[in-house]
Amino acid sequence: MKIKSVTIENYKIFKHFEIDFTCDGVPLPLIVIAGTNGSGKSTLFNAMHFNATDPSFQAAVKMEFDDAERGEIVYYPIFDDQVARTKKILVDYIDKLVYEEDMKSSEAYARVQSMLNDIFDGFQMQVELGGVSASREIYFKVPGGEKIPIEALSRGEQQIITKAFSLYLSGIKHSILLIDEPETSLHPSWQSKIGPIYQRFAEENDNQIILSTHSPQIVASVRREQVRVLLKDDDGSIRVISDFSGSYGWRIDRILLEIFGVQQLRVQAVENELQRLNEMLEQGDGDTPEFQEKLSALEDLLGYADPDLALLRLEAEEQRMEKEEGYTGEAEPEDA
Q: Does the pLDDT at position 334 exceed 60?
């Protein structure tokens, strides 16, 4: 089961709103919905989730599905109690291996660890499954051999196991999963890898996963046809942008500027200093002590190799050459 489109006539901030989840008419297995705070990402998820469970929503929220086998719509909000659910999923999966497939406990633990290593290859996780206690608690081993409960893992490790790995053990198929901000507590290097993890799960189990995110790393990890950006206009209405020149593999600063609509990439005080230096260059003051003093201060702050500062130095050097040598950049006239 996959959603092809959602139309909302009147629900909270959404008025005459429509969003399409297809590419060339075919529902996508993974869609990333990006946007700033207040752009309606969580509200959209609530509308989609309640539409499937509360008939009173169906007048305002219409969802078009494909003709595939019907499953369920599962919503994973940001602050859901996922630890308790993950414990049960892990224990149930291990029990199935032991009691239905006649594995030894050690073999079942090794199977789960092998899956964890395969799915999250490249994440360099520093934990491994330690086993199940007599009280049915899941434990993990950390470097040094100490066993700790899942609650004692780092927030990032908990997110990986509870939001992503638990899906692979859950057996969910033919369903739609709404996952709110999967990047929470993840290091940027992990954020850039998590999108393909969800893509793989969706494709292997005939699911559709819809992620909402603030993370430029996640946006850069998927194809442009998978990205939908929600924007809030001045009149308060929400619209969707889905026609991008690209996204996959873009630099993070380009994602922020061109897709998230960020106005500046630096703190305002630094932006002001850079602007002042550019203004001094425009006025021909690139060789003045004041310019050099301001440039030196920013080099101490941002580092000598900062690309904006390198460009300022180059332009200042060109000005110096023009003044000292009468250099104009134009060819000298030939002698008659």
A: no
